[in-house]
Design a protein that fits this description.
Blueprint (H helix, E strand, L loop, with lengths): L2 E8 L11 E8 L4 E7 L2 H20 L4 H15 L4 H18 L9 H12 L11 H20 L26 H12 L5 H12 L3 H6 L5 E2 L4 E4 L1 E4 L4 E4 L7 E4 L2 H14 L21 H11 L11 H11 L5 H8 L7 H4 L4 H15 L4
Antiparallel strand pairs: 1-2, 2-3, 4-5, 5-8, 6-7
Length: 375
């Protein structure tokens, strides 16, 4: 925040400046607020007092706190609201840590557009935990958190203007996700189905066949699986703070997904095995040998140790979901793909619509054959 102007008001209106001895000193801020102080003395002394008063106000404004302090307040407020998921708070914390490397000790009053631009550029070009040049997608996330912290400072009156108002957000340089082509994904499915059936294998099959997120897999309840109708009802997610079953992250995450026959058979086999292990207080579909719910971290450890043997060397577990969505993108319009994936918008679809001339030609041929009666 900055001082916009300052002036002296004469309180003894009937007297000329040379004889007036009562004044009010005014300091106006950029947010429209004013500070005032009464002063008794000659006009020249009042002018000197105004300069002192203005300096005091500017000094007070400058001590409104650092970016790091404001960011901590913002994060504490979000946590106190109780409606922000633990995983989201953790990502916010990581973003604040990254931003604080550059802006942590900077006074809010010094967060000018120039300082913000230079600081974001410094973070992108090496002032980060990796020391490498960061991608635009990650920088866009940092920009978003920075903007939200500064907006809170603006609303609290700690700064007069939004310094990011004229600083464009980093361009999201979205790249295609690494994925297994459909034939390789099918080979991985066959390799999984050849293993002894257990809770982990079932989760990986759900990712391959239905593109479920890991949290959706471990949170799936027995009652969510309808084998007769061949439908999986996705209704839950996992709360990473205590690994408890909770609602899906967004409403779009609630969806009903049709199952292919092989997956129905796999689930039927697993439910028969599970009945000998499950405890009455464990409603989740995927359980371990002790009859307790699986944790997503256990899934990841097993996958990293066995993925090479499954024909997916170097692929993360989450890339099984990407592989399924990339496959489905060849056969669904973007709106069906949105519902299948559980997205809140169609924007993520562009990540999975890969450049595929063969698929494009097949789609055109099908359309011409269906509507024009020609190939």
């Amino acid at each position: 925040m900055e001082v916009r102007t300052s002036y002296i008001e004469k309180l003894e209106k009937e007297k000329p400046n040379g004889k007036c001895r009562k004044w009010r000193l005014w300091v106006r801020l950029f947010d429209g607020k004013k500070r005032s102080r009464r002063f008794a003395g000659a006009y020249r002394e009042a002018q000197q007092a105004l300069s002192t008063f203005r300096a005091e106000v500017e000094s007070e404004i400058k001590s409104t706190g650092t970016f790091a302090g404001c960011a901590e307040s913002w994060l504490a407020y979000r946590e106190s609201m109780g409606d922000v998921r633990f995983s989201t708070l953790r990502r916010n914390r990581n973003a604040i840590t990254a931003l604080s490397r550059e802006f942590g000790d900077v006074q809010l009053a010094d967060m000018t557009p120039e300082r913000c631009r230079d600081g974001l550029a410094a973070i992108r070009n090496g002032n980060n935990a990796t020391g490498r040049v960061l991608g635009g997608a990650y920088m866009a996330k940092l920009y978003s958190v920075l903007h939200r912290v500064l907006l809170m400072a603006l609303h609290d009156g700690r700064i007069a203007r939004d310094p990011l108002a004229n600083v464009p957000a980093p361009k999201v340089d979205t790249r295609e996700k690494d994925w297994l082509p459909p034939d390789e994904l099918a080979s991985t499915v066959r390799a999984l189905e050849a293993l002894p059936m257990d809770g982990k294998v079932i989760c990986y099959l759900l990712m391959c066949y239905l593109g479920l997120r890991r949290g959706e897999c471990v949170a799936l309840l027995v009652e969510d699986v309808d084998l007769d109708a061949a439908i999986v009802h996705v209704r839950h997610g996992i709360e990473e703070r205590d690994m408890s079953v909770s609602d899906t992250k967004t409403r779009a995450g609630v969806r009903d997904l049709p199952m292919p026959t092989p997956l129905v058979d796999d689930l039927r086999e697993w439910l028969a095995i599970r009945s000998g292990r499950a405890r009455a207080d464990c409603p989740t579909l995927a359980i371990n040998a002790r009859g307790t719910a699986l944790r997503s971290v256990d899934l990841e450890k097993w996958w990293n140790a066995h993925r090479a043997a499954l024909g997916a060397d170097g692929m993360t577990m989450h890339q099984l979901r990407h592989s399924n969505l990339s496959m489905m993108a060849r056969h669904m319009n973007v709106f069906d793909l949105q519902r299948w994936a559980g997205w809140s918008s169609i924007a993520p679809a562009r990540v999975y619509v890969h450049a595929d001339q063969e698929s494009l030609a097949a789609g055109c041929a099908d359309a011409y054959r269906h509507h024009f009666g020609t190939s």
